[in-house]
Amino acid sequence: MLPRGASSMPPPPNPAAYFPPPRVTLPSGLEILRTYSGAVIFLEILFGTIVWILVASTQVPLPLLQGWVMFVAVTAWFLSVVFLCVFLFGYANRIAVNWNQMDFLFHGITFVFYFGAFLLQAATTSLHYFPRKFNSTTQEKLLADHEYNISIAASIFAFATAVCYGCSTALALRRWRL
Q1: Which residues are in the MARVEL domain (predicted)?
Q2: Helix, strand or coil, per DSSP, at residue 95
Q3: How far, CA to CA in Å, does 167 sit from each of 22, 40, 59, 174?
Q4: Above 60 in pLDDT, residue 110?
Q5: Could you tell me if 121 and 50 are in contact, meaning their C-beta atoms sit under 8 angstroms apart?
Q6: Domain regions of the chain by residue span
Q7: What DSSP letter does each residue of 54-94 carry, written as one string?
Q8: Does the pTM of the predicted model rise above 0.85?
Q9: Helix, strand, coil: what percent of the chain each, to 5?
């Protein structure tokens, strides 16, 4: 006979005990900066900052194109900083996520967006000799010579940043599949 208030059913299992542990192959703390992935993420942040500064320093002749470039550059920069901080401060070991898969998805999606941003920035740069106003009698160029040079530099650094995101995607895929 059971004591009063007791049931014959066992207590429900603790749901936290069945939550899978995080799968992390990257080290936490400052050790991440000694890996290839950590160094490439650092380069993504550095080159992304340069792209952000260069695009912001020009007069925006085509707001639709360069607005998207700016959005991608700022968003990717912010998310890369957050991603690096997750590993620097050891949160990756506390959050139960497959970090190898998350790394691959984040860098793969960001690579696609950043490569598109590079193409838009290069397209803006290629319009250097087009007139600013088609109905005008003066032939003022869409980009002044100084802005053209800045736009070339922004295109080069946007390409370099896209390559860094591509390298991170390849490293993450290798880590995820092993």
Answers
A1: 32-177
A2: coil
A3: 24, 8, 32, 11
A4: yes
A5: no
A6: 30-130+142-177
A7: HHHTS--S-HHHHHHHHHHHHHHHHHHHHHHHHHHTTGGGT
A8: no
A9: 70, 0, 30
